[in-house]
Amino acid sequence: MLAKRIIPCLDVSEGRVVKGVNFVNIKDAGDPIELAKEYNKQGADELVFLDITASHEKRNIMINIVREVGKQIFIPFTVGGGIRTVEDIRDILNAGADKVSLNTAAVLNPSIIKEASLKFGSQCIVLAIDAKRNSKMKNGFEVYIYGGREGTGKDAIEWALEAVKLGAGEILLTSMDRDGTKKGFDLELTSLISSTVNVPIIASGGVGILKDFLTGFKEGKADAALAASIFHYKEYTVKDIKNYLSKKGIVVRE
Fold first, then answer.
1. Does residue 133 fall inside a structural domain?
2. What is the C-alpha radius of gyration for the chain, rounded to an integer number of angstroms?
3. CA-to-CA distance for 53 and 60, rounded, in angstroms?
4. CB of 113 within 8 A of CB of 106?
5. Top-confidence residue, 148 or 89
6. Contact 184/191 with Cβ under 8 angstroms?
7. For range 61-70, the mean pLDDT
8. Domain assignment present for 254
9. Could you tell me if residue 180 is inside a domain?
10. Quick one: how far is CA 105 from the chain centroid?
11. Domain membership of residue 241 as a residue range
12. Distance (Å, rounded) from C-alpha 26 to C-alpha 17?
């Protein structure tokens, strides 16, 4: 059995790490470089850096911050936000990222997934899906883009299948309904996508207590769990989570 991964997330806006609830009511949560160093020290398995306003503001990602964060950590590093072209992907990988996360660009131009996975390898291409419950969708969840500002009319499960066929090697799945609420992962959404596609699923959105990680892995069938505010506000360390999961029989990396 593959070890489950614990991944802190840095949502960055104007050079600072921020956190909101349901993608709004954003508050400052610290310096991205200092937080990256701390999570690397705590034993995080990976780190995700998302420039959350880049696509909406139609600007490029803050590559200087990506470069500085990359210098501070020795774990796999995924970067997303404001990526529009294969050249953008190359620049981010050259700046120190191991993977790129595509959401808006992939929805607007799905061929970028195929082109990028052929050029850099599918293991570098993470499809980010921001999904919200919508009973009009075939499977009950709609894909949103531009940092959760715009619905697409795309069914989240069908989009996941399409993107994996195009070459996405992993899916970062965020429940907009649960984001920042501390009510736990959306287990229905997570298990639906986990059981539909054959690539690793990173569950995101809603962690509040240790048990949420356990249910995300057991019931949601996720391969990795991403969290932000519980780490930023020092409610738990990565070690706390791994110790808890180990005691519950979940295989985690030391």
1. yes
2. 16
3. 10
4. yes
5. 89
6. no
7. 85
8. no
9. yes
10. 15
11. 5-247
12. 10
Residue type, 133: R
Say if 39 falls within a structural domain.
yes
CB under 8 A, 24+ apart: contacts of 207-211: 207/182, 208/181, 208/182, 208/183, 208/184, 209/182, 209/184, 210/236, 210/240, 210/241, 210/244, 211/184
Residue 165 tokens read as: 């066929």
First to last CA, the chain: 15
Q: Please report, for the domain that includes residue 118, its CATH number.
A: 3.20.20.70
| DSSP annotation string for 54-83 | TTTTT----HHHHHHHHHH--S-EEEESS-
Active centre residues (catalytic): 11, 130
Q: Can you tell me the distance from the alpha carbon of 147 to that of 132, in angstroms, rounded to the nearest whole number? A: 12
Mark 211-249 as b/e (b = at least 16 C-beta within 10 Å): ebbbbbbeebbbbbbbbbbbbbeeebbbeebbebbeeee
pLDDT digits (tens, 9 = 90+) for 218-242: 999 999 999 998 998 899 999 999 9
Round to whole Å and give the CA distance between 100 and 134.
28
**pLDDT (tens digit per residue) in 7-47:** 999 988 877 888 666 655 566 667 889 999 999 999 999 99
Number of domain units in the chain: 1
CB contact set of 114 (below 8 Å; sequence gap of 6+): 166, 167
Report which residue type is found at 86.
V
Residue 254 pLDDT = 81
Rounded average pLDDT over 186-197: 97
